[in-house]
TrEMBL record:
Domain of life the protein comes from: Bacteria
UniProt key word S-adenosyl-L-methionine: yes
SUPFAM superfamilies per record: S-adenosyl-L-methionine-dependent methyltransferases (SSF53335)
Extent of the signal sequence: none
Pfam families: Methyltransf_11
Keywords, in A-Z order: Methyltransferase, S-adenosyl-L-methionine, Transferase
Record protein name field: Methyltransferase domain-containing protein
Record InterPro entries: Methyltransf_11 (IPR013216), SAM-dependent_MTases_sf (IPR029063)
A Gene Ontology BP annotation from the UniProt entry: methylation
GO-annotated molecular function: S-adenosylmethionine-dependent methyltransferase activity
All residue ranges annotated as the Methyltransferase type domain in the record: 23-123
CDD domains: AdoMet_MTases
Length: 233
């Protein structure tokens, strides 16, 4: 779902056929980065876990030479982008599932903003603090649901969550104001008794419903994850 939303933003922002310079911070095993390299873009993936970088390199080794030349996995921390790259070096910066593991995201966001060229796209995927109680309740975790109502709980613990309004302000502050946002996992994967359907037609119906909900108020506001797209002025 995030890939579809990202492709939509790339198509709206950049000319068809343009080879983009992409930085994927916290790339994990490099699935998103590799997908974009297959589409013809020049991708640098940064990941702090050497084991995940090794997994990305192993997957990359199986690709044709042209794709291998377009994807460069790097062991590094998202806070150190200014050490490795010049300001304005990238047309697209991805930061998916990273802010939730950062105690204070402001410095990281500022660094990512500096990496963007004018007109560049910053794509963030974060846990939605406004959905914590709902997620816990649908999973039958009543104590977790009660705890989630505490105003400070969203910012505490090893896995943080963020709210739309403060992130919107933060994106404006780094010169990449929010252009579009989506909900992710609005319907799918929320309840403990809701398995992904095996039947292909039913699965496609699930994808269609999830995509519609992720674009529609009030449903997207209670999605488990938020996908925010900011654009460098």
């Amino acid at each position: 779902m995030v890939a579809r939303q990202l492709d939509e933003q790339l198509a709206a922002r950049f000319a068809v056929g343009r080879r983009l310079r992409v930085l994927d911070v916290g790339m994990g095993e490099g699935r998103q980065a590799l997908r974009l390299a297959r589409l013809g873009h020049q991708v640098t993936g940064v990941e702090s876990d050497p084991a995940l970088v090794a997994a990305a390199e192993e997957a990359l080794a199986k690709e044709p030479e042209g794709i291998r030349e377009r994807f460069r996995p790097v062991v590094g921390d998202g806070h150190d982008t200014g050490v490795h790259f010049l300001p304005g070096s990238f047309d697209v910066v991805l930061c998916h599932g990273v802010l939730m593991r950062v105690e204070s995201p402001d410095a990281l966001l500022a660094g990512l903003g500096r990496m963007l060229a004018p007109g560049g796209l910053l794509s963030l995927l974060v846990r939605n603090a406004d959905a914590l109680a709902l997620c816990a309740g649908l999973a039958g975790d009543w104590r977790g649901a009660l705890d989630a109502f505490g105003a400070e709980s969203a910012a505490e613990g090893p896995v943080r969550a963020d709210r739309l309004a403060p992130l919107t302000a933060a994106l404006a502050g780094i010169g990449a104001p929010l252009e579009r946002w989506y909900g992710v996992r609005v319907l799918a994967g929320r309840a403990s008794d809701g398995p992904v359907p095996v039947d292909e037609a039913e699965f496609q119906a699930l994808l269609a419903a999830e995509e519609r909900a992720g674009r529609t108020d009030p449903y997207r506001s209670v999605a488990a994850l938020l996908h925010l797209c900011g654009v460098r002025g």
